[in-house]
Amino acid sequence: MREKLEALRDEALEKVKQAEDKKALQEVRVAYLGKKGPITEVLRGMGKLSAEERPVIGQMANDVRDVIKEQVDSKESALEEAAIEAQLASESIDVTLPGRPVQAGSTHPLTAVVEEVEDAFIGLGFSVAEGPEIETDYYNFEALNLPKDHPARDMQDSFYFTEELLLRTHTSPVQARTMERYQGKGPVKVICPGKVFRRDDDDATHSHQFMQIEGLYVDENVRMSDLKGVLETFAKSFFGAEREIRLRPSFFPFTEPSVEVDVSCGMCGGHGCRICKHSGWIEVLGAGMVHPRVLEMSGFDSTKYSGFAFGMGVERLAMLKYDIDDIRHFYTNDVRFLAQFKRN
């Protein structure tokens, strides 16, 4: 029995030395120290030994088991340490290598235009107002002098949720809501940037979703000359100090009189070219004096207060400022396009 235990010990220790990974080592542990291993069988056969041999063989079997366990645990620690060393070696960092450059993002051109327009009008005493993109029919149309049977509604084909809820077709509802909050007491001086939605076929110059910035100034003795002065100051700030504007008669239900505003062509200096269709002027926005009915519906006394309003498309401004020929460039997320507008 002693010879058998010594042979098991030597055999097990040799296999421990040969184990190259934790899986092989675990197999040695189970084979020699498990419940079905040879050492356990020796201990189970102790009853067949004489009273004198039992304590001697039992002690020897325990010693053999302890030696094997100790060697297995020691080899397992050595394997773990070697694995850690190998991992550290493979993941080592050469601190002398040059760093990888981080690509900085850029401001989206539409965001840049909105911020520039806001800065220009804030400098003129305007504040920025916002409102919901899902609007009621009342604020989107009726409060702006567009009753339910008004033919001008056909000019703004809309996305309706119900008969009374729709995606706003312009940011003018923000103006109506703002005037209501002032409860008939001026002055009101705000610009309203935001997304608007209309049922339109997307092409190079049209989109079902686009951005507008509208402005409103209501106070006593506000005149058309004030409107022209504000818009001329903005045009020179945004397009260049040499640019001029002109007002052409037009029609909008919520302003009377109404005008279209053109800016002199920056490409030809107003002499006429392909960009301005040889007219010397480029249309940029619509404006006019706030209709007395719109003032009354928002709680203002139209005999005491007057005001002007204007609205411009952000994409239109960006396309003119940066000479962009397709509105879809703004929404395709092409990094090559966006990278052109990085700020220093």
From TrEMBL:
Cross-referenced PROSITE patterns: AA_TRNA_LIGASE_II
NCBIfam families with a match to the protein in the record: pheS (TIGR00468)
Main localization of the protein described in the UniProt heading: cytoplasm
Keyword Ligase included in the entry's annotation: yes
Listed name of the protein: Phenylalanine--tRNA ligase alpha subunit
Catalysed conversion reaction: tRNA(Phe) + L-phenylalanine + ATP = L-phenylalanyl-tRNA(Phe) + AMP + diphosphate + H(+)
Pfam families tied to this protein: Phe_tRNA-synt_N, tRNA-synt_2d
Co-factor note (free text): Binds 2 magnesium ions per tetramer.
InterPro entries found in the cross-reference section: aa-tRNA-synth_II, aa-tRNA-synth_II/BPL/LPL, Phe-tRNA-synth_IIc_asu, Phe-tRNA_ligase_II_N, Phe_tRNA_ligase_alpha1_bac, Phenylalanyl-tRNA_Synthase, tRNA-bd_arm
Cofactor(s) listed in the protein's UniProt record: Mg(2+)
Annotated compartments: Cytoplasm
Source organism superkingdom: Bacteria
Signal peptide bounds: none
A cellular-component GO term for this protein: cytoplasm
Gene Ontology BP, a term: phenylalanyl-tRNA aminoacylation
EC id: 6.1.1.20
Subunit structure as annotated in this protein's UniProt entry: Tetramer of two alpha and two beta subunits.
